[in-house]
Amino acid sequence: MSLTFTDIKKTSIEKINLLENESFENFANSSKIKKSFISKVEGFSINQRFYIGHIYANMVADQADIVSFIIKDKYRRQGFGTILFVKFIFTLKCKGVREFFLEVSEKNIGAQKFYNKFGFKKIGCRKNYYKTNSGKENAYLLKLQT
Questions:
Q1: For 70-90, how does the pLDDT look when each residue is reduced to its tens digit (9 = 90+)?
Q2: Which of 55, 71, 78, 103 has the fewest Cβ atoms nearer than 10 Å?
């Protein structure tokens, strides 16, 4: 298994948008990610001959707000997400990040378990955070203190 990681700033914006759209097809008002936005975030994409997924965050001082973390459906539950996530957290910690934040749908139990495994704790709830094709969903706000 030969994996490569690419700085998200050097990742094809078309690949990023395609995966974002595939992953959030049930969410209303999904917008196109612009290269100008990606140029301001920190993150990686992961590849194994083909594009597997990505993670990126906004960084301010010693905090990172994870904006997107997606692994293609057919590559999930094979360890790729864990490998990418560990590399990402380690890299940002080396850059001085001490607090990580993210939102996760209250219905996405699998993702919640994944983040809990890394020590993320629920610190709040954002009511009607996600607009879906069938209404709205709440999101939990999670925090990792390192």
A1: 999 999 999 999 999 999 999
A2: 78
